[in-house]
Amino acid sequence: MAANENAAFFIGRFKMIQVAIIGASGYTGAEAIEILLRHPEAELAYLTALPEECGNVAEVFSRFKGRCSLDIEPLDMDKLTSKAQVVLCCLPHKVSMGFVPKLLDAGLKVIDFSADYRLKDVSVYEKYYQKHTDTENLKHAVYGLCELYRDKIKGAKLIANPGCFPTGCVLGVAPLLKNGLIAPSIIVNAVTGSSGAGKNPSVNFHFPNMNENFFAYGIGNHRHQPEMEQIAGEIADENIDILFQPHVGAFDIGILSTIYCEPKEKITAEKLGQLYKDFYKNEQFVQVLGSAPKLKDIAKTNYCQIYPAVCKNKIVVFSAIDNLIKGASGQAIQNMNIMYGFDETAGLL
Ligand SMILES: NC(=O)c1ccc[n+]([C@@H]2O[C@H](COP(=O)([O-])OP(=O)(O)OC[C@H]3O[C@@H](n4cnc5c(N)ncnc54)[C@H](OP(=O)(O)O)[C@@H]3O)[C@@H](O)[C@H]2O)c1
Asked: At residue 11, does pLDDT exceed 50?
């Protein structure tokens, strides 16, 4: 390499944001690697997992053979702080808040995928999860639903990346809530594919039970219900009661939500469609359709597709996302892009 090429190479490298992934051996970790490999302004710097899952990334995930030569290593904090500026924390809830305070104390920015920093009311978190051990950082965490919290995300050090069901649901009803058009009581029926539960199969999500099957779960007590209520309430500026019923179907990817709302006043389908188009007119990743969205159309993309309809005298909104992309890793990179002032679509189209 000639000297000036060398300099350009190093200036180029210097400008790239260095990103670490903790929990890189999981489903969301793999999707984050995929996106970062094509990101023009950010570079994978350090991948970590539990010792038994470590090794060359192309051995852990053969899809990266020939495309990524990094190793997934056991976490070493000194290495992490010397190599990265921002960390994607792809760990399960409860585990995450054991790591996040150390990462923030080391001066790193953190985008956390778990539920540990999403619920502002500690008593609600503790009812649905366990005792919260990092309430100090919880106070400063910014909920990373990009389309609605962009201004806060810009200056954040800790992002609570939203849950997958709340992402689809809240984007689906935000135009109605923001404009005060519906009664404060919503019903959400949603179906997810089996990747929503992560890579370790449980009895319910194990192949023989899932294959050619479809069933409801988390009846009356799913953990995403209070998260949806918190964010919907913030957008509407009043308490919103949400009855959320998840189902799981025999497919890998995607969440389709059907959301039933009571309009305060009669609205035509045309006016409703226009309201949604206006609300999302500047959003790159929310697409308002004139017919029902289909999961195959949004699989492997960061798009949320929405169709608001008037059925009898109700508003029924259909919303579709890829749970691993817009519902997790894609939204995390979208957050990172906002935090660093990159084009919001970088790596995501
Ligand atoms: N799946 C989704 O659709 C989705 C959507 C939105 C948000 N999320 C959230 O994103 C996070 C990751 O989900 P996922 O689906 O990627 O889960 P996953 O496939 O189970 O991966 C979890 C990762 O965390 C690692 N891990 C587990 N316990 C650990 C510990 N005690 N110490 C260090 N590492 C540990 C796992 O290591 P091993 O490889 O050794 O198990 C794995 O790398 C979760 O908080 C989840 O709720 C998931």
From this structure: no
For the CA of 199, the nearest atom of ligand 1? 19
Q: Where are the alpha helices (H) located in 18-159, listed in sequence order?
A: 27-37, 57-60, 77-83, 96-105, 122-128, 135-140, 146-154
51 and 125, same domain (yes or no): yes
- pLDDT bin (cut points 50, 70, 90) of residue 8 is very low
- Statement to judge: residues 207 and 148 lie in one domain: no
**CATH number for the domain harbouring residue 126:** 3.40.50.720
**Catalytic residue at 169?**
no
Are 45 and 18 in contact by the 8 Å Cβ rule? The answer is yes
pLDDT per position as a tens digit, 207-226 = 999 999 999 999 999 999 99
**Residue tagged active-site, from 54, 146, 164, 169:** 164
Give mean pLDDT, residues 181-197. Answer: 96
C-alpha to C-alpha distance for 97 and 135, rounded to whole angstroms: 9
Query: With a 6 A CB cut-off, is 28 part of the ligand 1 pocket?
Result: yes
Q: Structure pTM?
A: 0.95
Instruction: List helix spans (H) across 164-222.
Output: 164-178, 207-210
Residue 178 and residue 135 in one domain: no
Q: Is residue 348 part of a domain?
A: no
Q: Which of 33, 46, 60, 91 to mutate to test the pocket of ligand 1 (most atoms within 8 A of CB)?
A: 91
| Residue 277 structural domain | 164-323
